[in-house]
């Protein structure tokens, strides 16, 4: 098997797609945060409540109000039990020790939420919604599930409001944590320690049957296959052996489920590994991976994305690669060919920043590239560069780059319906936390959804949408806790819960969801 033999390529393949020269030069002219004076704020909570009937312990959760975009003013808090077991006797009630919080600086404040029960309270799950409201600012909510049981240790398990399975890759513990949401509570499906150290990348196949995870110790690497079972549980495949020795930094499976494409930091090679759609394993024994001829123009690949709906007849399907300061690549991709890589174009960054995130619209209309210095004269310098996808070119649309209210884009999430796109910033000028900016999308333009929502400390932030299209999930490598869950409704992100996906320094670097 010729997988994992990495070298620095020194030649670039012929430059097409409307550019007249090879490489990153001569490709044309490519790629103040908006916000009201009232600013905004978000609500989150410390976790669900598990208590006993009449219990006076373990019956509280901490609600945190975090100001954003220079918010000042007063937030009025209230709570209500919004769902309970059918015909419940003496149902749980809620209260807050603080109902009015006044902000004059970007410092979070807290209130304690208490769930009160009686000795004859019906057992089961009670959903409590806490609402924060301020004059001139849209109200925000966060939801806590209070489980009342005789042991006081049960977890909320109602099927109401359930998500699909999703997976957090924790580099600090070298584990995959499989999770889901039900009745506003986070459920752990399983925790899986990887066979080798230093997790680097994760992806779920479009058919939802297989998960691939990469590791690298800086010298050698491995890609492992997991099958996804009922309820999202994982089983290590291929008898525990790696299917590839590629130390992938970024990887994705194409929509035909027949190619696993990966790139490696420090290498100019882009590789395509043929896989069997029915098993997830290599398509043939002793397989030799296919390499992009000539290699990428830069050895700094950060992320890659593949056009959805790719097929041997698709003339406008590509692999897109964000290469940091090395710019952006668009490479024709034909899964019906022995080597699926075709003609290509390489594109500069606009200024001195880097192309650090990339994603594709689910209908293959647009490709999104997050660039850290696209708007150098603005306070928040990062921008979202948006390009139309055609068979011969990927021209930048009018209005691009769009301000994304930060300085360090790390992840881009187009929603499955194609109506919205979100960009996570690991850094924002003037504050110590990251954020998530949102846009509504048409084939020709993006429109900001308003002030970005807070997204925890300034760490590497990854985004995913669950299979029910009800939740946006964000992991933060510097977060404590590290997982933030937002409900998704008509483009609006509302903080539902925050949670830890492990103990200690778990260092989550990526998240993927079953489609």
Give the termini separation. Answer: 31 Å
Low-confidence stretches: 1-38
Largest β-sheet summary: 5 strands, mixed
CATH superfamily of the largest domain: YVTN repeat-like/Quinoprotein amine dehydrogenase
Mean pLDDT: 87
> What integer value in Å does the Rg equal?
24 Å
Q: What overall geometry do the principal axes of the alpha carbons give?
A: globular
How are strands sequenced across the largest beta sheet? 2-9-8-4-6
Please give the CATH class of the largest domain. Mainly Beta
**Structural class designation:** mainly beta
CATH topology (level 3) name of the largest domain: Methylamine Dehydrogenase, Chain H
Strand fraction band? over 45%
